[in-house]
Amino acid sequence: MTEAIEVKNVWYKYPNDTLALDGVSFFVNKGETFGILGPNGSGKTTLLLCICGVLKFQGEIRIFGKKVSQKNIYELRRNIGFVFQNPDDQLFMPTVYEDISFGPRQYGIKENEIKAIIEDVLNKLGIEDFKNKSSHHLSFGEKKKVCIATALVLNPDILIFDEPTSELDPASRRELMQIIISLKSKKTILISTHEPKIAKEICDKIIVLNKGKVVYEGLPHILNDQEFLTKNRLA
Amino acid sequence: MKHSFFDKYSYINSPVHKINPVLKLILFLSIGILLNIIPFQIVTYILIGSVTLVITYLSKVPLIFILKRTLVILPFVFVIALTNFFSKLSESTVLYKTFLNAYIMITLLILLTQTTKFPEMLKSLSYLRVPKLILVLLSFIYRYFFILIDEAEKMIYSAKIRTYKRLKIRTIGAMIGVLFIKTYDRSERVYWSMLLRGFDGKIK
Ligand SMILES: Nc1ncnc2c1ncn2[C@@H]1O[C@H](COP(=O)(O)OP(=O)(O)O)[C@@H](O)[C@H]1O
Ligand SMILES: [Mg+2]
User: Fold this and answer.
1) Cβ of A106 and B200 within 8 Å?
2) Fewest beta carbons within 10 Å, which of A21, A74, A152, B169?
3) In 3-state terms, what secondary structure has residue A72?
4) Which residues of A touch B118 (CB under 8 A)?
5) Does ipTM come in above 0.85?
6) Are residues B68 and B108 in the same domain?
7) Is A54 in the pocket of ligand 1 (CB under 6 A)?
8) pTM of the prediction?
9) CATH number of domain containing A67
10) Per-residue pLDDT reduced to its tens digit, A185-196
């Protein structure tokens, strides 16, 4: 099996001296759906941002064998789709179409090609009607789907979801889980969450973070252990 | 949805809404230039004033809404007209002209923005070769203006829930400070979102 993501002894300290990642190591195999569990503030978002080279960490991260560095990050990111926890951070253009086309335009894809790809992605997610709408005219769940579209549009091999189900109502939540499950067989997926239920439902493998340290790496069955959950503030 | 400062009426339907936005924009700019080069004549303003009224009627945007909007800006217009008057030290027509020109242009600008969807306006600006950077900045302002209002509103609600008195100036000051920090934090995350979608310092 090839390794899609390899994280070796990664440290990250915010400018205000918060040590958010304290020597984190793990690897994700190609095609796996991998869960990053941890309570609020355990470092999940920070870790995901390091993997994409957005935050300048100490240590080593490899994506399909290539070391993440400032030199190759632009190319590496093309193969990663990222879905933020809060859609309002992710969607910054005046219309849904403009937002989804931002990525492909940055990578120099031609307008007519972009148009075809976007049609396809919107169709798959069942949100064709949103195309010309402004994001602030959409509900939270609808915005979330648009975020997924912005991540899928470049057809990346790796998809990253930061707390995908937080703040969603039960129906949108089910829809979103269905979308992730439908992508499972085609992509390497990284999901951060503080909900053991989500991880048990879709993850092949997990790590558990607590205060910036990996306290568990392995199969999700550990999440049935009530004592473990309480100890790591997951229940 | 609930916030509709600059596009409250831009999603309704009327003959004015249907006019090509590029055309509207060009008309708007030409009127602005014309008003400034032709000599001051009261007839011109009666004419333009009536035309504006007709357009307003056709556009189905309530006249009272437009008047209220212009009222907010009136003091600024007045100050500009006054400075213009004093700096040129000329006859009173300069004062009238600047004031009337500014007032008409603002009324027309409100009409323009209320009858054109913002994304379409951006497209028209891009068609008229306005630099991309400016367009992207305008997009951001449009997108995040609503969010800022939302956040401010939430803060005011939660402060009101916790107190039965009127908010103190100091509290309001502190709230504005928090809003600034929140906005700064958000701008950082939006920047990350841009990076993650292939931004490398240049908008393509
Ligand atoms: N921009 C920031 N500046 C300073 N500290 C931060 C910042 N973002 C997060 N932190 C801190 O880093 C730690 C990890 O945060 P985060 O990665 O957001 O956790 P999670 O996503 O698991 O909730 C927390 O202690 C948090 O307070
Ligand atoms: Mg987080």
Assistant:
1) yes
2) B169
3) coil
4) 94, 134
5) yes
6) yes
7) no
8) 0.84
9) 3.40.50.300
10) 999 999 999 999
B114 and B42: one domain? Answer: yes
The rounded distance, in Å, linking the Cα atoms of A29 and A188 is 8
Tell me the C-alpha distance between A210 and A216, whole Å: 9
| Token pair of A111 as six digits | 């307008």
Domain's final residue, options B123, B144, B177 = B123
Q: Is A105 on the interface with B (CB under 8 A)?
A: yes
Instruction: Judge whether B10 and B117 are in contact, CB under 8 Å.
Output: yes
Choose the residue to mutate in A12, A14, A83 for probing ligand 1, maximizing ligand atoms within 8 Å of C-beta: A14
Number of domains in chain A: 2
Q: Is residue B4 part of a domain?
A: no
Does the pLDDT value for residue B121 go beyond 80? yes
- Whether residue B137 sits in one domain with residue B113: no
Q: Is A20 in the pocket of ligand 1 (CB under 6 A)?
A: yes
Contact assignment for A82 to B186 by CB distance below 8 Å: no
Structural domain that includes position A97: 86-140
Task: Note the Cα A79 to chain centre separation in Å.
Answer: 12
- Hey, is the C-beta of B195 within 8 angstroms of any chain A C-beta? yes
Same domain (yes/no): A163, A74:
yes
User: Of the candidates A127, A141, A136, A135, which has an alpha carbon nearest to the alpha carbon of residue A170?
Assistant: A141
